Amino acid sequence: MPNHQRVVVIGGGVSGLATAYLLARDAGPEVEIVLLEASDRLGGKILTQDVAGHPVDMGPDALLVRLPAMRALLEDLDLTTAIVAPGASGAFIWSRARLRPLPPSTLFGIPQKLLPLLRSGLLSPLGVARAALDLVLPRTRTGEDPSVGELVRPRFGSEVFERLVDPMLGGVHAGRADDLSAQSSVPEIAALARRSRSIYLGSRSMRRGSTSSGPALVTLEGGLSRLVDTLVSRLDTCEVRLGAAVTGLRRVSESQDVAGVDAASTDATGYLVELFDGTELAADTVVLATPAFVTADLLARVAPDAAVAAREVPYADVASLTLVYPRDAVTHGLDGTGFLVPPEEGLLLVGCSWLPAKWPHLTDPSSVLIRAMVGRHGDDRFASMDDDALVDQVHRELVQTMGMSAPPTSAHVQRWPRAMPQYTVGHRRRLERIDHALTDVPGIHVTGAAFGGVGIASCVARAQRTAAALTTDVDSAVASSKGPA
Ligand SMILES: Cc1cc2nc3c(=O)[nH]c(=O)nc-3n(C[C@H](O)[C@H](O)[C@H](O)COP(=O)(O)OP(=O)(O)OC[C@H]3O[C@@H](n4cnc5c(N)ncnc54)[C@H](O)[C@@H]3O)c2cc1C
């Protein structure tokens, strides 16, 4: 076995880029890294574009900076000075013909204080009284992997569920709380329910014990593509290929002849990465940082059981619209970051960000940028509308919710088909099946938003674990190739 190892990373979203960067940083010079990206750009769902002269994010626009892996990456990339904190706090929920303040102190919509809940008018007095029952109800017995609905409804009642928790999970996961697994989508709440008879009391004591300070969600000056650009600028020792769609993976063993292939280590057990143009690339180790349905296709021959489990992860189609309104058209005070819409309201809108209030660097003297999100699991009505019809409908809903008095002067529509993985009930078992199947296939690593957390910070945390595992594997492969000292 030669003392040279080739790692091929498939997928140039933040998961693939962060894995490649951390591996390049930590592994020795014996490691050659090749990153293959199908499209003609890097960043995947992270995409900042110019709208009316401002850098607006079309995909994610906020980083959960409290997650240590995210914070560490920003520090490592010298990006902490580029952090922009939200300019407003608080948000609203569209409910029963009004924008009502989201009560402060909620954990994914679970109230941590009852008085602000009552004052917000979001729930009826009866709904607040029903929520308070959590304090006295005996512990709720659920199955091993309850949905968020199964956990929350019996404790807090249907108003908390429908007007707070469901819209919150629509905003974060583009999902429905009756389908999503509590332990996979809101592990904090699942843990509280296990630990404490009353989720309300448990979450209050967790809040008291919290030492975190500063905003949890931030962005970067110039938009989140800056994170991508900075990661890419640090990949100078890696080979990055764009327009390089991978179509399959094959395992090769020591006895197999892979002559004629662009091989790194043809005498070792490894893989052949098949590309769309019919060429193949030999790899000692492969990292799949692709959406689960692509990962499933690529694993089909090397780990069929893992492929079956990966294919079971459902996805939601979503779209973001950035609407530029003349300043005079916006009569609303924009005294928060925006609003969420419960599915029961029947709107196309899932959420709306008031960009100048949310991110101060997106303030414009003559116009107001509004970002609308549409689409959630089970509601892809928007997908059959063309861009003009979609903008028109969203504008009408903004007239209804915010009182816009004139149409937008321009609009940018970004569609994201099959974009948001749904951690539905059974997700953890699916991950266990993938891990189990991959124990028989050394040198294959699976990472990305479909598996260990949907947000960028979770992708970075998983990339960190993947890179650490790879570094160990590669170091021991190199050490064994050198033989006993
Ligand atoms: C509209 C929207 C808003 C969001 N808002 C937030 C937010 O505010 N905060 C947050 O933290 N998260 C947010 N998210 C989630 C976050 O954007 C994603 O979870 C994260 O960017 C996923 O990164 P990834 O690298 O795992 O996957 P992706 O970004 O999907 O990257 C996968 C890459 O693999 C490539 N690829 C696919 N097939 C192949 C192939 N066969 N060969 C080679 N390459 C291939 C793709 O082209 C892509 O570049 C949002 C997502 C969306 C869609």
Summarize this entry quickly.
By secondary structure, the protein is an alpha+beta fold.
Give the tags.
485 residues, alpha+beta, protoporphyrinogen ix oxidase, domain 3, Polyamine Oxidase, Chain A, domain 2, 3 domains, 16 helices, globular, binds flavin-adenine dinucleotide
Describe the 3D structure.
- The protein has 3 domains: about 5-40 and about 225-315 and about 425-480, FAD/NAD(P)-binding domain (3-Layer(bba) Sandwich); about 100-210, protoporphyrinogen ix oxidase, domain 3 (Orthogonal Bundle), CATH 1.10.3110.10; about 315-420, Protoporphyrinogen oxidase, mitochondrial, domain 2 (Polyamine Oxidase, Chain A, domain 2, Alpha-Beta Complex), CATH 3.90.660.
- The chain is built from 16 helices and 22 strands.
- It has helices at about 15-25, 70-75, 115-120, 125-130, 150-155, 160-175, 180-185, 185-195, 200-210, 225-235, 290-300, 305-310, 355-360, 385-400, 425-440, 455-480; strands at about 5-10, 30-35, 50, 55, 65, 85, 90-95, 100, 105, 110, 215-220, 240, 245-250, 270-275, 280-285, 285-290, 315-325, 340, 350-355, 365-375, 410-420, 445.
- The protein has a 7-stranded mixed beta sheet with strand order 8-7-18-19-20-17-21.
- A hairpin with a 2-residue loop joins strand 9 and strand 10 (about 110).
- The two termini are about 15 Å apart.
- The model is unreliable at about 265 (pLDDT under 50).
- The structure holds flavin-adenine dinucleotide.
- Flavin-adenine dinucleotide binds next to helix 1, strand 5, strand 17, strand 21 and helix 16.
